[in-house]
Give the backbone structure.
Amino acid sequence: MALFVRTTRAIIQSFAGDPGNFLGRTLEWPWYGFWTQAFYGEVDPRTVNVGPQSEVVKRQRTNDGRVVLRKRVPDFVLHYATGVPLDHDIGSLLEVTNHEQLQQFYQGRCIVTKSLVLAICEVKPYPDPNVIPAGDQFRDKLAKALGAIQAEARAGAKNQAALYLASRRNISCVVAISTFGAYFSWKVFVQGGVSDVSSNLDATYRDSGGASEESSADQAASVKYGQYPLPRKETAKEGPNTSEDEGDEDDAPLTMQKVTGKGKAVAKPEEKTEGDVKNRRVDEHKDKGKGKGNEVQSRPAPEMPLLELPPLLDFSEDTLEEVIASSAPAAEELKSTTSSPGPETASTSANTSGAARGDLEQPNADSDHGDEEDTEDIPPAELEWSQWYHWDTANGIRERTKMLKAIQRQHPDLQIRRQ
């Protein structure tokens, strides 16, 4: 089956990497198919869902006591979920007469017993070839464009991991995967290793009594958060006693807005006299005069990254038929996977109010103690971004194996890898 899946990914890469298919544009969404195929080729589809456009959200409190939602939307998450059958007598919507039955109807025939995010993934397309001029500067401009898109992908994954860890204090670490086109890079982010996100919308705010609803970890990190972007607010429909705002993913910087309510005002920039301005202009003019023309020569040329392509594939009809035939499951294997229940499905019934929810991942947990892997056991190399690899090269296969082992090591009791 491996060759067949590689062939499928090769076709998707050809489609997604050709701007001619999208009116001359390079777009992000065509790569979703590639990464769905890539992840499902490695994880156990019975327990791990490759979920596109998943939400990471954290509750924040405004200075006047309202609760708003700070959110980001990763392009993908690897979501682990298991469940047991839900026993109820509802056969159709016509039999629903109350909220409990409506909830059972929504959930269908199963109830989730364990749910958590294994990894967060940010997807970017290749740089637009139309903005890279031909000629002597082609390679330099291409290297700059590649560096910019790589930095953008890593920054997006980092911001999403930071919000995720801030919203789940009981999670010690999470794997972040950044991609552009068919290439990926990954890193493990740990609690305390990224800028914290305060439980207050204005992280500098403290009420008159000095009390705060933040944990000690939030308070210690509030100074770092001073530069963290402030989300735009979209007022939701108000309930009887609640008012909720939902932060948009595109955030406006906190330092560019006046903080309302009882919070501290943003410090004004230092005022400069007219003489200071004139002197600064004279100095700048002198600096420009010195060595003009040598500045460009002294800059080092951007380094072109080593981005390998996978080896050639055999698309012959005989090869494809061979692979498809060999991928068909044997009768015994099919029987064992359909007749023998797993450890999570041994129970034949469950109800929505029982202890089955005890293992669900709880957002905004107050505990500062991780219930996952001890972060001291993480190899130092995994706390730095890896190099960029194509998913289907020999080096890419080795690197993705390391990445998946890191995810499995954080959750040793879970079935994550494809058997």
